Every structure is written in structure tokens, then in C-alpha cells.
Amino acid sequence: MEIAPEFVAAETTALSAGVVKRATHLADGRDLIYYDDAGSTLPAERSIDARTLDPRPDTATMRQDVLTGDWITFATKRQTRVMMPSADADPLAPQSATNPSEVPSRYDVAVFENRSPSFGPALAEAAGTAPEAVDPPRGLDDLEAIGLERTRTSVGRCEVVCFSPEHAGSFGTQSVTRARTVIEAWADRTAALSALPGIEQVFPFENRGEAIGVTLPHPHGQIYAYPYVTPRTQRLRESIARTGADLFERILDAEQRSERVVLQGEHWTAYVPFAARWPLEVQLLPHRHVPDFSALDDAERDELAPLYLNLLRGVDALYETPTAYIAAWHQAPVHVGRDGIRMRLELTSPRRAADKLKFLAGSESAMSAWTAEILPEDAAARLRDAIASVPTPTA
């Protein structure tokens, strides 16, 4: 006799562009959120996660580098994470009779808390599924103070964003409809994570390719919610303080008048920056000053989906094989310096030829003093040609 699957009641919310959000939990209490495409054929019911899981790990610890003030997280549980599994053991695929993965049901887009995160909960949850932080940060003033052998619990949040139930691919291999769903998920999670106590910055990103260090071939990205303002953003705040609050407006104007624009729409412009460090480096900037995904209007989100896909497919058309990259969505801090910082994509790749990578050797790694081998104008011309060679993305 066949046993009917058990279903869990998911909290359902209608979002923009016809996307439907269904929130539930995994067996150990971690949040799991499904985002259904507009017009999705998936049923409303979601299977319960019936696994028996080990207790959630203690939240990691971070130590301060007294020479720079930077906080370094020591997440030792990440040493045991899965490395390049086969399709039948993919932890991001929907669960099956032989694969007890992280996602119980078939899905369009799924977001869940990382099982071994770099940043974890501050307080024990009501169900007792997350341990309490031993020594949480005491606010930004506490984290920005500098001293010898300072430690704090790495309070924050790390989430996995599955772009597709398929085993292989990337953001760039998705349809326009699916890309729009992911953008809606990024916006929804940015708003939710920004509202959590102690969160100072939210960072969505995609690592793509083994050359970048990817451990799962499944098309996915991540979102980090930090308890501090990241070092890169602190330097940006210093530049804005020295040059003026309209810095991004002036950057956009200068880049739009240059030879470095690779793609442009009504609401977004993609360009190779004037002082690009990497062999392949592209920034994508909204024309309107917005701090993060949650502040984008529907028109900006709608245009971003096909435009971003066009950019990524152009990147892959540069060579005969797909290009490894980091797609980093820089967003303004949640509280400090928010007004002056405009959200932007920074896509970088170490690939400097079909069979060559740029390695960060002595000067770059030790001194952060960069030498670039390719002029930004030349890189932009090649990328424009590559983008022109790929079909326009469709729904």
C-alpha cells in the first residue's frame, strides 16, 4: 500500500510580478522559503522535512585583526561541507527516496538557512533548535573599537538561494521569468534580513565555477547578513566623505560618456570601470539612487532580469567554455552611511585568456597594490562584441 506524503502548511504571501512566497521550516528549525514563478504549475502544498538531523552547530567565533580592525570569522564546521557531489547526491536538489537533500519539495526558487554558516543566530529560538551566542557583538561602536585578542560570536545570517531545481547551471542559464523570481527573492530577503537585530549589511552574491572555489555545481547563490559594515564598504564611505555625496551620480555620468559601456537600458547601465583591477570586471549600476534590492521599483526589477541575463551570457560567449566569476551585489549598509551609497553589481573574473588565470601574487595579495594586464576600454570592446553575439533572453 502506497503511503501518501505528509505536507506542511506554508505561510503564503503574494509578491510583485506574480511571484508567490511560501515560508516553512526544515527539520532542525531552519527557515525554508519557496518562491514560485509567475504562472508556476507547482501545487500549493509543500512536503514536510521528515529527516532526523544533528543539532545545529554553535554560532562561529570571529577574531579581530588588530593591525587593520577587520573581523575574521572562524567557521570550522565548514571544513566538512560537501564537495562537487554527483546529481544523485546533490544537497540542493529536491528530496527524493534516495537523496535526503536540504529541500523537501519540488521548487522554482528556494531559500534556506545554511546548515554550517559563517554567521549564525544570536539567541536560542523558541523551538530550542539554535544554540545561544556566547559573546555577541555589542553594536557598531564595540566592533569598530580596536584591541589585542578581541573576540565576538559571529552573529548574523547565511542563506542559500537555489535558482533552479536542476543539478547544473548558473544564474545566466535561467529564463527571464526565473531570473525575475530570483530578483524578487533577493529583494524580499534583503528587507527581512535588514530587519533582524544586529544586522548592519546584507550581501547577495553568486560564486560560479571551480576556478572561483565553488563546491556545488547546482545553480545557486548565497546571502550573507553581517553584524558589521564590511571593510570594502567602509573604504567606500571614506571616499564619499572626501569627494561628495553625489559620487555615484558623477561616476554614472562619466562612465556613460566613455568607451567602457557594454550594455544600457532605461534603468540600468553596465560598464567596465575606469580603474578595473581584474581581466574581466563589470559594474551594473541603476540610474536612480537606490540603496538595495528592496528599494527597486517594479520597472527596475523587470528590466534587470533580461539585462542581467544578457550580460552573463555575453560573459560566457567570450570563450568556448563557461567563465568562472564572482557576481557581488553591493548594497548600502542597513543603518550607517545608507543615504550616500547606491547599490551595484560588481562582476569579476580572474580569467585573462581562454587557458590563463590571473593569480593574486605578492603585490596584490600582500600590499593590495594591483597591476592590470588589460585596458578597461579593450575589455569593454570585447565584451560588447560577445554580448552582441548572443540571442536576446526570452521568458
TrEMBL record:
A GO-annotated cellular component: cytoplasm
Transferase keyword on record: yes
Keywords: Carbohydrate metabolism, Galactose metabolism, Metal-binding, Nucleotidyltransferase, Transferase, Zinc
Upper taxonomic lineage: Bacteria, Bacillati, Actinomycetota, Actinomycetes, Micrococcales
PANTHER family linked to this entry: GALACTOSE-1-PHOSPHATE URIDYLYLTRANSFERASE
EC code: 2.7.7.12
Cofactor(s) required, per the database record: Zn(2+)
Gene3D superfamilies: HIT-like
Catalytic activity of the protein: alpha-D-galactose 1-phosphate + UDP-alpha-D-glucose = alpha-D-glucose 1-phosphate + UDP-alpha-D-galactose
SUPFAM superfamilies (UniProt xref): HIT-like (SSF54197)
Involved pathway(s): Carbohydrate metabolism; galactose metabolism
Active site residues per record: H220 (tele-ump-histidine intermediate)
Source domain of life: Bacteria
UniProt family annotation: Belongs to the galactose-1-phosphate uridylyltransferase type 1 family.
Pfam families xrefs: GalP_UDP_tr_C, GalP_UDP_transf
UniProt-listed PROSITE patterns: GAL_P_UDP_TRANSF_I
Segments forming domain Galactose-1-phosphate uridyl transferase C-terminal: 254-384
InterPro entries: GalP_UDPtransf1, GalP_UDPtransf1_His-AS, GalP_Utransf_C, GalP_Utransf_N, HIT-like_sf
GO MF term (any one): UDP-glucose:hexose-1-phosphate uridylyltransferase activity
Residues annotated as domain Galactose-1-phosphate uridyl transferase N-terminal: 82-229
GO biological process: galactose catabolic process via UDP-galactose, Leloir pathway
Protein known as: Galactose-1-phosphate uridylyltransferase
